[in-house]
Amino acid sequence: MTAAVDAKRLTVLVGQFSSKRILVIGDLMLDEYLWGKVSRISPEAPVPVVDVARESYFPGGAANVARNVREFTPHTMALGRAGSDRYGCQLLELLAACGIDTDGVQRDAALSTTVKTRIIARNQQVVRVDRESRTPLTRAQEDDALSFLESAIADLDAVIVADYGKGFLTQRFADGLCGITRRAGSILTIDPHPYTTIHWSGATAIKPNRLEAFLAAGLAPADPVTPVLADEALIEAGRRLMERWQPRDLLITLGEHGMLLFGDPSGPLHIPTCARTVFDVSGAGDTAIAILTLALASGATALEAAHLANVASGIVVGKLGTAAITPAELISGLTAD
Length: 337
What we know:
alpha/beta; UDP-N-acetylmuramoyl-L-alanine:D-glutamate ligase; 9-stranded mixed sheet; 13 strands; 35% helix
């Protein structure tokens, strides 16, 4: 069935976000944007020459999830790794400037901080350049991260895991953090990565996108079918993941087709997209998991939380670059919706 909720109730929930204490765990990155214009084609190869006019930097990956959370609550913490290189220093400075607590960020001299560079000309992305190191946590680093979580968990309302497949999320660490949150009775939400083999167990909610859902379910990706509730391959992927991961709820994001929520006794619920203009999908998943978690921590039902995440995603894809939304924008989006 297609789901509906009360917009006034959602607005009340958003008003409660500011008191929530959220820890974001995962692969921290730096997003670099080079802005310029194209005036000619290179004589060396049939590619555009971009004259760079300015640069901008933003937290990326799990750090962007934390940035999205921080727009709604000052009680935001990050647990992850950063290299000791200049990019790692720059990332920590950005997080501090946002007001995000970085006491849980490990500094690793052997790690090259992941940097994603996007070159933009005339509001169009020309190319993206990735500099990254997929280095798994050492056992000592796993123990340090678990100790930090153990000491912090009593003061948290929710934990978000954002897996970008760069090595911070290992199976041993995942098992440990699931155990810690389960014993504490804490909300745990997970944004999984499609190309890792980490098994998650007993989370409150897991939010894969369509591709991630098929790959995690062991199924070949299939083309979308409309209406969404007639998409038998997608329904089967969701059914398998509910059995495998056993979360309370599973929310599969579907881009222009909205979202599909599993876990309701009545069966899968379809939430149509709220996007009106799609300008850039960068970071939409980060916004979705941030708002989903804040809503659940504020007492929202899974359906209410999914609706809020859907509205937030619809707003952020209308912005260029890795972006976050504000409480005012989200409330305005609820009214418009």
